[in-house]
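Sanity check. The docking grid for SLL depends on where the pocket ends up, so I'm generating a full predicted complex first rather than guessing from homology. Inputs follow.
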Amino acid sequence: QKRLKGIQIFRPFVFGNTAKPFDPQTNPKPPGTPEDHTFSWTVFVKGVDDTDITYWCRKVQFKLHESIPNPLRTIENVVPGTPFQVHATGWGEFDIQIKLYYIPESLEKPQVFYHRLHLHPYGTDAEKEAMKLLPCITSQCYEEIVFSEPYEQFYDLMTSP
Ligand code: SLL
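Predicted complex below; grid placement will be based on this.
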């Protein structure tokens, strides 16, 4: 196994969350949802414009707040071109640890990112007002993973059509 000296390869992706308040008309509470839960939300990792990332990202582990049952959620074997995601309900905002695991051929260690779960409109007053008109709140971040001097086999997999 040899690293390709002087080569850098990067792959963009998006991580973040969507959230919707419970509402009898637009977002009814599923039966059995605890009384104090006021929102449904989804945290995700996906390709830009839903492009496939499964050819370099093997699995994603989301670490949720300890108040949530089974806070460590591991998502793998997703349909290519669909997000790695966890859906939940709750009442509060907190930091989610997102750990990306690369395909084994990369021989790279997993990498950690943090995302603050947003349930409520945020930003300037104007931004908040605009968000209130949307069907759901989205808070997401564009990132690029840089693989520096990748192993040859990984590089070939990443760049083969
Ligand atoms: C806060 N520091 O006080 C934060 C904590 C915790 C959110 C937020 C519970 C969900 C469940 C839930 O929403 N916890 O019980 O499944 O705002």
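Relevant for the grid: DSSP finds two helices and eight strands in the chain.
Also worth noting: Residues 125-132 form the longest helix (8 residues).
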